[in-house]
Write a structure and sequence with these properties.
The complex is a heterodimer of chains A (307) and B (295). Chain A has 307 residues and is mostly helical. Chain A is built from 14 helices and no strands. Chain B has a domain at 64-256: MetI-like (MetI-like fold), CATH 1.10.3720. In chain B, helix 4 (65-97) runs antiparallel to helix 11 (190-206) and helix 11 packs antiparallel against helix 15 (259-292).
Chain lengths: 307, 295
Amino acid sequence: MRNFKSFWKNTWRNRTLVLMSVPAILSMLAFQYAPMYGSVLAFKKFDFMLGFDSPWCGLDNFKFMFLVGDTFWRMTRNTIGYFILFTIVGTITKIMLAIGLNELIFKRWAKFLQSCMILPHFISYIAVAFIVYALLRNETGLINQWIMHFGGENVNFYGDAEKWPFILLIVNTLKNVGYGSVLYLSVLVGIDPGLYEAAALDGASTWQKTWHITIPMLMSMVIIQTLLGLGGIMKSSTGLFYQVTRNSGALYPTTQVLSTYVLNAIKTGGNYGTTAAVALYQSVVGTIMVVGTNFVVRKIDPEKAIF
Amino acid sequence: MVKKTKGQWILLGVLILLALACVLPLVLVVIISFSSDASIAEKGYSFFPTEWSLAAWEYVFGYGKQLVVSYGVTIFITVVATVLDMIVETMFAYTLSRSNFRLKKYYAMMVLITMLFSGGQLASYMVNVTWYHLKDSLWVLILSGVSAIHVIILRTYIQGTVSEALIESAKIDGAGEFYTFVKIVVPCMTPALASVAFMKAIANWDAWENAYLYITSPEKTPLSLLLMEIENDIQFLAENADNLSPSEYDQLVANLPTDSGRMAILLAALGPILIAYPFFQKYFVKGITIGSVKG
């Protein structure tokens, strides 16, 4: 009781702070917490006229979701598959780039080249989609021009699903590698040069120094970044999977992910009940992933846990 | 002085190639926008067109009202949403940074929950449309809740740079909480504010999903949506060329930009970002590093 009283006293004394937080709290309630409640749509038989007042239908939407079967599993596979692919390739390329930029003795070049490589991060996916289309489209596209110049056949990229994991990996890597490497570079700059000098005195080669000093120093950043990333495991970039693929049905087998399915379903006014079920599944799995990995990390090394 | 060994030159070469891969596609867009349509028809897209032309840019400036309107909408959204979010989030971050404020524990919990779970796009859509009636309203592009990551960046920065003693001494001198915040804390936060604001401004400028879902009237169409619509029209035309009557086809073609025209419109949309980028670069590099410190 006394605790409660002193809590209110503290809050009253800081009433200006409470006032300052009101806009943020209201904004969160209206645009983040209200949609959480909106997830109940997953358990309703959706009717456009009734909206949120549609009748309950238990788990029917989820049953339907699993009944659709193939598409659903394919989307899940694509979502998680691309996440793993992008995380592994992304982390390795970012670290390699950071080490490369750090090792380069032409410092002015390093700075300039880094600026060039960060730029794509700020180009919207709509623009990226324009550019990829300019490169890959039939006949007039730059790549097809080159292929035909050297006597090859026109390749119909937008009709051939098998090529897209590779194309999306390249686009995603080029767009994010420069920006992502900034973080790792900031860690590298902070490493005590004494460590390298000591290693050099013991006769370590450049590779040995990289392997035994640089990489271990980067590991905690890798873990934090991967953990933060895991929260988005189910939320693939719609820019990449919807815009860059031009939402082309022929490419769905390798490019359709949960978030593009939801976006497309909202836009085309598909079955909102099932869509809500898919969206809830997407959110819940995401939450489990974050809480789960954080739990494991805290067991191993409490310092590195996010909460 | 370190020796410029062979390895260094190879490293430089590799990094230059990577940088070219990042920048050349943009250069291609610029070149296409200055290529003549005859050249594109003959050679396809190319870094070395047979004939240069300003037709595409004349087209862009003649495209007239819709482009100007869309530009206005995008600028309006970017400015209002960024400023509004910055004010709300900076004040909130300040309350979270005060060590003797006991309510902050619950605030932090609230922020954490938004990071862990979200209702998803469909639930947001239904809430915005049925409860708030924001279909085809510019507000839906402006109001979006609180960005947990940005609040954490700002709070961490306040804790790291503005000392408790400074704030206390201001209060002893008789400054109220809000006055202290505006006159002492905010001026100390310039680098963090600039980098977060820059990230937000870019995100707002590039945003397309909400416009795509909610906006239907042309006078509220931002640039991103305009670009998408042009693309969709072209695709529609390509897919339905055989099903359309000649007069319908001609009418559609007359309204559509040529290849070079599309690239010129794209550049017009990208322009401000490309121009602002060199000036803000140092701020956001700092911003990323601040953001990496966990709270």
